[in-house]
Each structure stands twice: as C-alpha cells, then as structure tokens.
Amino acid sequence: MELIGDSRQQEERFKELAYQATKIDIAVAWVGPCDAVEVLKNCNAKIRMAVGISGNNTYPDTLEELAALETVELRIYPDEPREIFHPKYYCFYGPKNVCWVGSPNLTLGGFRRNVELVSESVIDSEKDTKYWFESIWNKLDTNPSHHIKKYRESWEKPKFPPSPRRIPQHEELPALTEIHTWDNFVDALRTYDEHCRSEQYFSVLGDTHSWLHTALVGNKVVRIEDWTTLTERQCYVLRGLTTKNETEGVWGLFGRLKQARQASYILNNERKPSVNVCRRIIRQELEPIFGCPFVDLPNVAQRAVYGISRVHRRGVSYTVGAAAASRWLTLARPDGLVSVNSRSKTMFSTATQLPQHSLHAKYDRLIRWIHEQAWFNEYNKKEPKTRLEKDIWDCRAALVDVFSYSSWKKD
Question: DSSP string covering 330-350, please?
C-alpha cells in the first residue's frame, strides 16, 4: 500500500494508470470539469462509472459529456433524502491491477485544489475489489439519460445572464497600481474573490464560474488546432458568451464579444467556406504566441493584434476588431497577455498613462508595462505554496482583468 497526498503526484499517477489500463471502474460522489475527466475522455480503456448527484455538486454538462462517450458506461446513483452516495473508488485494470481508495472526487477540487489523500494498492485478482463495486453497479439503472435530464432540470444553476453591480463606496478594493509584490497580488485576488462570492454568482478563484476557470478552459479551447471543428459551446467560450443551458462557466469575464458582429459571425458555428477560411487565418495568427518567450511576447502579440483585427487574405475580408484579438490572445497566453475591453481600458489607461483609444495600437507597450511590474516576476524565484497559487501564477496577466471589477456599473 502507498499513500499519495500530493495533488500533482495524484494527477500524474492518475494519468499514468488510466493510459495503461484496459478497464477502469469508478465510483464517486461527484464529477465536474477537470483534467482527470479529460484523461478519461482520451484514454482507450473501457470505463464503468457510478456517480452520485447529491447536493448539486455534480455538473450536468460533465455527466452528459461522459454519457456520450462510447468508452464510458455511466450509471447514476439517485439522490436519496437520508442517504448520500459518497465513495471515492478508482480501480485500474492493466499490466497491474491498481486500486485507489481515498478522498478525491472526480472534480477540479478533488484532483487539483484540495488537500486530498489516496491509498494505492496493487491487487492480485479482480475479485479482490469487484465484489463491492458490482454490488453497487448492479442495482443502478442501466439508462442514465432520464436521470441526467431530471437532474439538470432541478440543478440550481446560476442566474443568467450576469448582472454586475457597482461596489458600494464604503467597500475598499485594491487598485492595480497599489500592487507591488506577489503576495500583494494574491491577497488582492482573494479579496476580490470574497467580494464576488458575497455579491455575485461568479468568483475570481472558484473551481467553476470564475475568472481563473475561464482562463484555464479558454486556454484549452483556443489551442485547438482546427477551429473549423469547434463545437457550439467552444465557440461560446471564445466569444465570451454563455448558453442558456450552461452549468459550468461564465465565459464573459474577460470581455464579451456580443456587440462584435463580425467576430460573432465567424464564431457562430456556421460552416460557410469564407467563415472557415477566416477561422483558419485567425488560428494561424495565434500560433506564434503559444511558445513565444516573454522577451519577445510584446512584439509578437502586437503583430497578432494587427493580423487578427482585420483578416484580409485570399479574397476573405473581415473586420474582427482589436477587442476580440486581445481576448483570444489573453486566452492563448494567460501568463503574459491581458484583455483590453470596455471595462479594463480605463484601468489600463490610468496605470500606464496611455490614452484609452490607443491601447490596442500600443498593445506592446501595455504588455511591457505588465511584465515590468515586480509582482509579475517575483514569484518565479519562489516555490509555490499551493496548487491554487501555481494556477494563479500561470494566469497572472489575464487575472489583472479582475481589478477592473471595481469600475463596473450596474447593467
């Protein structure tokens, strides 16, 4: 038996075991959007999953995504008033049969944010562990679809759409220009996080419905190599909009492209030839950003703003706009680029003394100013205190957008 208490080791070991396995049995209280779920989607193992839905902590979108996979057989443990389905059981059958029993649910908190503990054991025979799982599995409905539908209908999803409110005058929230050290930066984000949690249905650092979650999800979407294959939901993530059935995110926290008509047209999930050509061009303009070193990033980003803002090539011409360009650049490199939108431009102009109307034209100067701040570089010399702090570091430039919250007006 081995105890695994480090979240990074848990993630890495989970991935290793999943990709080695031919069969996986899972029984957990909750599932939600996380890298561990992505691993299960991409591995070749045949997977049986028994999932609980108590307390609205399981996300309907994730259930539907898993149920749609050919490699996954999903069964729902119904919500009982006096009984909560609460196991955390993972059994991997491969070169070695390995069983995990511990505390992490199949969620971002379970595999990344929380302090969790797993007991790993090598089992000699499938019979050693299957008796318990089979006793649960065999009593569950083989058709999860109506359970998922009923659960989605009763799930207490956030209000739609967001309606930010002006912060009362007596509530002091730190300004970007007041941040001097990495600890200042993290403390300020926590302050904003607490305020948002009390005032809104979204937050700054939450596992879902937050700036941090939007940056992490958006980064995965923008890196998809072929934008002509984007799903409707992925297009909504890039546009900063939220579908009526969305349960996992608030995508507009870095600026919405609702009024950017041509950007919206390009990402409205149409399959017209000119639209697909434009999508490919935009994705090509973003490609140099992904692996660009910080020293070159301001100049490379400025060229990308120009290239994306007005797409004109091979008879295709769209004025996408610089706001859309800076949003996609921010999702591409949340560690080094910022979104210049209707709410953040006042903050950036005040901080840098650059005129608001020229922030996109002088985007390279804005990015250099961000990179010159002490908090931006200080943490690189330290060991991360927590996995959350590491995530903040990886999205530190994008999260500057949070500081524009203090200037939001009631819609």
Answer: HHH-TTT-----TTHHHHHHH
